[in-house]
Design a protein that fits this description.
Blueprint: H1 5-29, E1 32-36, H2 39-51, H3 56-59, E2 61-65, H4 72-79, E3 89-94, H5 97-103, E4 111-116, E5 122-123, E6 129-130, H6 139-146, H7 157-166, H8 173-183, H9 193-203, H10 209-224
Parallel strand pairs: 1-2, 1-3, 3-4
Antiparallel strand pairs: 5-6
Helix pairs in contact: 2-9, 2-10, 6-9
Length: about 240
């Protein structure tokens, strides 16, 4: 049976689809990890970074939660003992006192430390400048998001107004919120930080610069370490035989 033009087009389309699927799987196998400090970051980073132009499947990006700044050094130590530690990693951390302290121990050419937020926003009691995830967003968005009913139970406009009146954008934001909640006989531990982060991420417009820079860094690292096709086999060793 003769080969028709339709057969050729179909075969080419099939080859293209197969090649695309192979490269997606290769991107996952050669992923760039973005390590994040906690559940709030894990919940929102992919959405924000994809809005900044990252395609997690095509670019091979994976979010990994190291579950608190106290686990940072152990996470790096364990990572160095795995086969995964042959490609770049972005290690994000809050730019607060614990974050600054732990970040100084990162000494690895494959690990890029990235502070959140990139530009200092608040001043801590020890006189240092910095911030955390909340401070990567606009202050008015933090206040608005904090008093959603699924963040603080039984919150209302009066409570939000009372907090707005005493809020100081130059002091750590979440600490102020926790203190305020305690002052009105509510449990600070009941604040749902993940939902707070999700509300901020869902409502921010434009995307904060910190996340734009993080997306740019991931793309830069992927350009420096492109995904290699499994079909690209180095046969140069044959020349030495």
């Amino acid at each position: 049976m003769a080969t028709t033009m339709e057969d050729i087009i179909y075969d080419e389309m099939l080859d293209s689809l197969c090649a695309e699927e192979i490269m997606k799987k290769a991107a996952g196998a050669q992923c760039i990890y973005i390590f994040v400090e906690g559940e709030s970051e894990e919940a929102i980073f992919q959405m924000l970074l994809e809005d900044c132009g990252l395609d997690f499947k095509t670019h091979g990006i994976v979010i990994a939660n190291y579950n608190g700044i106290g686990n940072l050094r152990n996470s790096i130590r364990l990572l160095r003992k795995t086969l995964s530690h042959d490609r770049p990693i972005i290690m994000t951390y809050d730019d607060d006192r614990p974050g600054k302290r732990e970040a100084q121990h990162i000494d690895d050419e494959l690990i890029t430390a990235f502070k959140i937020p990139q530009t200092p926003v608040v001043k801590y009691p020890d006189g240092s400048d910095g911030g955390s995830l909340e401070e990567a967003f606009p202050p008015e968005l933090f206040i608005e998001s904090s008093f959603k009913c699924d963040v603080i139970l039984n919150s209302n406009e009066n409570i939000k107004s009372d907090f707005s009146a005493i809020f100081d954008a130059k002091k750590p934001w979440f600490a102020q919120l926790a203190s305020f909640v305690s002052s009105i006989n509510m449990k600070a531990g009941s604040i749902n930080k993940v939902r707070l982060a999700e509300h901020m991420a869902e409502s921010c417009n434009p995307i904060p610069d910190t996340f734009k820079k993080l997306a740019e860094l991931a793309l830069k690292l992927r350009e420096q370490h492109p995904v290699k096709s499994p079909n690209d086999v180095d046969l140069s060793f044959l020349n030495s035989r």
